[in-house]
Amino acid sequence: MRGIAVVTGASSGIGAAAARALADDGWRVLVGARRVDRIEALAAEIRGLAHELDVDDSGSVERFAAFVAAADDDEGGTVGPSRLLVNNAGGAFGWAPVAEADEPQWRAMYETNVLGAVRMIKALLAMLEAHGDGTVVTVGSIAGHEPYPNGAGYNAAKFAVRAVMSAMRQELLGRPVRVCEVDPGMVETEFSLVRFGGDAERAAAVYEGVTPLTAEDVAECIRWVAARPPHVNVDQLVVLARDQAGARQIYRRPLQAD
Ligand SMILES: NC(=O)c1ccc[n+]([C@@H]2O[C@H](COP(=O)([O-])OP(=O)(O)OC[C@H]3O[C@@H](n4cnc5c(N)ncnc54)[C@H](OP(=O)(O)O)[C@@H]3O)[C@@H](O)[C@H]2O)c1
Fold first, then answer.
1. Which of 5, 78, 141, 185 could form a disulfide with 240 if both were Cys (CB 3.0 to 4.6 A apart)?
2. What span, in angstroms and rounded, lies between the C-alpha atoms of 54 and 42?
3. Distance from C-alpha of 18 to C-alpha of 29, rounded to nearest angstrom
4. Mutate to test the pocket of ligand 1, among 31, 37, 40, 139 (most ligand atoms within 8 A of CB)
């Protein structure tokens, strides 16, 4: 066994796939999200543990951290020396030019993607460090490298995630914690459904004519980053579909006529 891995936002998409990939790779996986029925089913499938988690809410993060600490106390001696936090909970809300920015949506994106990750790090850093081999893998985005029209609120949040990871990598220099980022391009998950407020047609159009990444493709990157030897820190891993060359350049196959 490798050790204990915490995955946030594990109720769908990349987080759920990462939890499965990590469990297959010998981690004891602890999953969190707001949709508890989903994470409980996942935990049963991967022989992990589940607990409600809203990364926007510091009380919820504290309760989740207590659950992780209890699992660490119970199993610390038996599951292996490594400790991993996958900061995956996040997403985009809305699609509008800066001139029409929806402030509550911008605030929500900063709250979940940036402060959510920071809250989790603050709550779990001591545990990650205590065993002498800790890793944080945060899921950023190509949107944190290249701004695009109508995406500025999400861009700003994911740029901020990169800033936080970079600062922390410098702050923790000399201590046994790796700080890594996996930054995907277009991945077909519930992401677009959430971004467009549940509009399934609009969400489906995002992937039309494209072969996007799957959640499993990104999960494999996370698994690989975490499985490097402790002295190897993969600072940033940017992964895009072959049909995508940057945040804005997407190749779409023409639709076939019947
Ligand atoms: N799909 C893409 O194209 C893409 C590309 C680049 C980066 N990303 C990033 O990848 C990560 C995962 O997204 P995804 O594509 O897998 O989308 P998804 O299918 O919508 O999954 C998002 C996950 O985040 C969780 N979440 C959202 N807000 C939360 C909160 N306040 N507290 C706890 N969990 C929360 C959701 O669970 P609950 O709703 O149950 O809480 C869900 O499990 C996000 O950080 C996203 O920004 C996605």
1. 185
2. 17
3. 10
4. 139
Q: What is the per-residue pLDDT for 75?
A: 86
Across the chain, mean pLDDT equals 97
Which residues, at least 6 apart from 132, have a Cβ–Cβ distance to it below 8 Å? Answer: 81, 176
pLDDT at res. 162: 98
Pairing of strands 82-87, 134-139: parallel
Please state whether beta strands 3-8 and 177-184 pair in parallel, antiparallel, or not at all (unpaired).
unpaired
Which candidate, 213, 208, 210, places its Cα nearest to that of 237? 213
154 as an active site residue: the answer is: yes
Ligand 1 touching residue 88 (CB < 6 A): yes
Residue 252 confidence (pLDDT) = 95
Query: What atom in ligand 1 is closest to the CA of residue 188?
Result: 1
Q: What pLDDT shows up at residue 258?
A: 64
Instruction: Count how many residues are written for the chain.
Output: 258
Sign, CA torsion 226/122/60/203: negative
What sign results for the dihedral spanned by CA atoms 52, 218, 5, 131? negative
**Residues of the chain predicted below pLDDT 70:** 257-258
Specify the residue with its C-alpha closest to ligand 1, atom 8.
Answer: 141
Residue 91 has a pLDDT of 98
Please give the number of the atom of ligand 1 that sits closest to the Cα of 111.
31
